[in-house]
Write a sequence for this structure.
């Protein structure tokens, strides 16, 4: 086992979700201490884990997360800002302001506040931040204007923090998945008029011909936190199966009506 992350203390927000859970398990396997931060209860069978109930839309809840982490493990080495919400598909003129505000509160303000309050402790350890973003924030996505805006903002925040905190030895990067096999997306797929068409579409948009697993996303997060990525900061890293590349490719793989099933 690579012991470069052994005994490091890692906060993973949104740890009850599939990607967050995969990240937590990957860090545990690497020998790290892991704080599981989520509204929903979660338990992993390890003495190196602590569950701290956290609502990243609440500043007081985030302050408690940092304080409780320090009480449990005495320091913070890594922050993984993974918590996010995915809304129903709407265009700008169809999106309610309250729904937009919730997206920004969780997907952008949450990582901002977690980073803000973790910063003094990451400065002491010369630690790192990884933001779990999305290709929607890089390329845009039909029917997901508010979600794309929140993730585009997160990518900008990633670069700005990399600039500001590089002199402190803090690295800050983002991973950008495209389609991932998660319970949240399964729920949306099963609610679609033709679930099998959606599954086939999600495979087609990735040049490798299949949809990513949460573990594949987690492996990149782990890499970005390791010494192997020690000279990477400010990077917006696609973990996308090549879904965004290739001149003219979109015209060859999208069928009429597919735009209705982009999630």
């Amino acid at each position: 086992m690579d012991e470069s992350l052994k005994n490091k203390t890692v906060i993973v927000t949104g740890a009850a979700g599939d990607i967050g859970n995969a990240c937590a398990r990957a860090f545990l396997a690497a020998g790290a201490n892991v704080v599981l931060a989520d509204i929903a209860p979660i338990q992993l069978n390890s003495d190196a884990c602590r569950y701290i109930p956290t609502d990243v839309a609440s500043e007081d809840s985030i302050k408690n997360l940092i304080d409780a982490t320090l009480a449990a493990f005495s320091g913070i080495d890594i922050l993984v800002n993974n918590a996010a919400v995915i809304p129903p598909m709407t265009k700008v003129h169809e999106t309610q302001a309250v729904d937009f505000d919730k997206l920004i509160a969780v997907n952008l303000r949450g990582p901002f506040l977690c980073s803000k309050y973790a910063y003094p402790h990451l400065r002491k350890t010369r630690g790192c931040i990884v933001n779990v973003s999305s290709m929607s924030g890089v390329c845009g996505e039909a029917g997901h204007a508010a979600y794309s805006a929140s993730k585009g903002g997160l990518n900008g925040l990633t670069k700005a923090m990399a600039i500001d905190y590089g002199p402190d030895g803090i690295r800050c990067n983002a991973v950008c998945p495209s389609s991932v096999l998660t319970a949240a997306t399964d729920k949306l797929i099963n609610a679609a008029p033709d679930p099998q068409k959606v599954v086939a579409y999600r495979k087609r948009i990735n040049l490798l011909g299949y949809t990513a697993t949460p573990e594949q996303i987690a492996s990149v997060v782990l890499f970005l936190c390791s010494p192997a990525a020690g000279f990477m900061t400010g990077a917006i890293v696609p973990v996308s199966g090549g879904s965004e590349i290739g001149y003219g490719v979109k015209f060859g793989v999208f069928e009429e009506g597919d735009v209705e099933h982009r999630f």
